[in-house]
Amino acid sequence: MKESTNLNTMKPSNVRRKTVSISPEKLIQIECFQPEHPLPLVIKPAVDGLNLITWATNNRSWIETQLLEHGGLLFRKFDLKELPEFEQFIQAISGELLEYSYRSTPRTQVSGNIYTSTEYPATQVIPLHNEMAYSLEWPLKIWFFCVKSAEQKGETPIADSRKVFERIDNKIKNKFIQKKVMYVRNYGDKLDLDWQNVFQTTNKTEVENYCRSKGIEFDWKGNQLRTRQVCQAVATHPKTGELVWFNQAHLFHVSSLNPEVYQSLLATFKEEDLPRNAYYGDGSPIETSVLDEIREIYQQETVIFPWQEGDILMLDNMLTAHGRMPFVGSRKVVVGMAEPFTNQNSGA
Prior knowledge:
Elements: H1 24-27, E1 28-34, E2 37-45, H2 52-58, H3 60-70, E3 72-75, H4 83-94, E4 109-111, E5 114-116, E6 126-129, E7 137-148, E8 152-153, E9 158-160, H5 161-167, H6 170-179, E10 181-187, H7 195-199, H8 204-214, E11 217-221, E12 224-231, E13 234-236, E14 243-245, H9 249-252, H10 259-266, E15 276-280, H11 288-300, E16 312-316, E17 320-324, E18 327-328, E19 332-342
Parallel strand pairs: 2-3
Antiparallel strand pairs: 1-2, 3-16, 4-5, 5-19, 6-17, 7-16, 7-19, 8-18, 9-17, 10-12, 10-15, 11-12, 13-14
């Protein structure tokens, strides 16, 4: 005779509630944009109405792990539309956003510490680079939010800085590691940013104090300012220990200019008076052929994806370089940065 169980006699104290743990992957879908490229990892909601800010708050560790592996995450099809929400999303992951100080390109502050992406003419290409790699301080993370995609093109190309480093010839790498990179900037004359914009002040004493604190040499000629700073060519990621190519020599060097523009500038300025230039850290010239080789490697490592409105691209700023393709029509991509890092050793 089978023994029967009377459910009515079971006491509530005998029934244990189970804690249900939902892994991050249960609420999202993940895929690589291209099978042959782990960069970027595309993350989409797997359930309707998933709040990206809440999800990110609860899964910071998972996001960090994926970012260190892939170098870049593309959040797509989340219902996030407003700039304050974008800022809250960044804060959920990395805390307070950074101000854009010691500037290299024109940007406009649009909300809190959210800025426009570099305001260069739509016809110009912005070469791949790591944000603020021309200095000894930079953000470890950077985010891009596509508010409005261009009618044509306007992508934000990206490339793995680890792969770029691996592919550069050892002789070139060793020379850069030994000598580092010197950035020379002459501010003003309407050809580049003036020093008031770069340093966000009109007070010369504040500029001088900033330069002294950052190891930047400076010279005044009336109201014109020239600075020189020697920075790393290669950097070590503070969390992974990996070496990455991390400088902007190929952007600052005069060989980045259109030949006609370069010749026109030389007709007006001495080379040392050009708005910006890059040298080896000892002041010797960097060979154009070397920079062309580096540019070619960046080109070969480039990954391009089309923007969709509402997309958020999150990059580890040391592991992944970014740029901008030319575009047609209006385009609005805004930027936020967080997690300041100071290189205590300007070498690797």
